[in-house]
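Example record for the data management plan.
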Amino acid sequence: MRAGLPKAQYLAFTGTPLLGRDRKTNEWFGDYVSEYNFSQSTDDGATVPLFYQKRVPEVHIQNEDLSEEFYEILEDENLDDTQQEKLEKKFATEIEVIKRDDRLKVIAEDIVYHFPRRGYLGKGMVITLDKFTAVKMYNKVQHLWKEELKALRRRIKQASDATEKRRLKQRVDYMRKIEMAVVISEENGEVEKFDNKGLDIRPHRKLLNQLDDNGHDLEYKFKDPTDPLQLVFVCAMWLTGFDAPTVSTLYLDKPQKDHTLMQTIARANRVSSHRINGIEKKNGEVIDYYGVFKRLKKAIKDYGESGEGVDDPPIKDKEELYHLLKETIEQGRSFCSSKSVHIDKALETNDIFQKVGLFEDWADRLLYKDEWRKNFAVYENTITALYEASKPEILGDPIVRTVAIFQYLRGVIDSVIQRQDIDSAVQKVENLLDESLVADHKKLKKASETVAEYNIQKKNHVWDLSKIDFDKLKKEFRQASYKNIEISDLRAFLEKKLEEMINRNRTRRDFAERLQEIIDNYNTGSSSADADFEELLQFAQKLREEEEERHIRKGLTEDELEIYDFLCKDKMTQEEEKKVRLAAKALLKRLTEEHPKVLVQDWYKDSQTRLAVRDEVGKVLDTYLPNDSYNKDLFTKKRDEIFELTLDLAINHKKWAA
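Corresponding structural encoding:
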């Protein structure tokens, strides 16, 4: 926690109107998160929870009893001279406190610290008292931002640890790309007014009024998730009726109340499917520098749908989020313990990630059943999501070592299941520990010592189906220490290989059904590991015969074989089989080589050309398929199947129909 800034609070808020008041872990982060990837939400108006952080600078003495007139005047961005005079005279004390230069500097320092260290690095909005303060805050943040970049570059030069250097360079790269802007409405005589305050509005107005090379204005750029415009300074514009889904952080330093307050904080609760550095937006965050906590509770009470939030407004100390992380870790630890995976063993010493055998043993145990592996993935996903949501306050807490253990074990498992190297998991954990430990005075052990030297030595087999020595594999498996890893490795290869083969020939789906039977049998635990591995090897042999021998035996190409398989019927004579092979060859040649051309450009977009292609398929098949055994119904069925295959390939721009 930064000096001078009290502890944070969070708000499980879902916009106006509010949803239910009970927000559990599964409601925040999903009942089930796929172990392969996160579910992709569409930007359809749904919302995410917000975390409310009260970070009031000590230089500010709050006045919770400001008059209604004060709020009413503040809601109008374009104050006339009378309103401005009334504001400055009647509420001089409050305004002076809010706009004090030393106070604004403290807030600017906090923004520069906080913005690059969040979990989800979404866009941000700084909401200030008035237009002049918006420009002042922009100037202060810009100055401190550049100073921070200089300091980071000095640290990079001085750093001897490779992990720390890489992490600092990543932060520098991020901060260098960030663009900021002041977004305030235009008024007559504004140049003179700003000049009188010692501020220059000209560059900001120019930026607001101009279009970029693509004809896009500032609003378009801010709504674009990939645009470098990431942080804007506002006082009234864009606070209502404006949605930029990747906005995840609001820095609120303006007295607000009621509906205006609710609309303002709702800017950060929009769902976005845009990932940043692999992290999905799971929540938004409101940083409150003025202290609207009471007003926020009242706004929820007044505007919560159907009275929700009246008795128990969903506003709690962010410390409860930390407790939720601890609780989820305990649940994950308990689950792992039930599978003889004792996480605490890795915490007994500081050299956590040098325990190579320990992690491989754990991975082998969790790979015993798909259900175990998937359940562990749910725990790891939830722990990681809660950890990211807890940044930057969580940085420096020893609990991150436990988070790292779950993440690394997940990486070891995924390296087998997804047939990828472990380097990405190593770097992720290195960065996690390094950025946290450097913020902690306890200095557990340098990240370079705990992670950089550690690597799972086991490498996935470089499989080549045509060159597999099945007898050698059997012998190696009998001597293997971690048989579930070996089984999962072979299974992952076969699943990927089969997917490729099905993409080349859809009639091979019966192989997929057979593989699923083997997997289901494995998950029941009804047979020994040796028997399961033997069954997978037998399946691999059949797969090799299918891929590399059958089309050669038939005298067909891969594409011809797919058409042939669609045309086949049960119990064909040798003569019938010969005619079907000729039909497959002739049909592919007619569709791809002969004139007049059948598959003209974009033929699938027009009903007439679609009909012409189907008729041409019918003509070729009528010529070659045996008339006596392919009656009208069977013939029509085969013609339509081949046409649907051709249509689907064309629509998806695949293979010979592209």
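Summary line stored alongside the record: Residues 166 and 350 are 22 Å apart (CA to CA).
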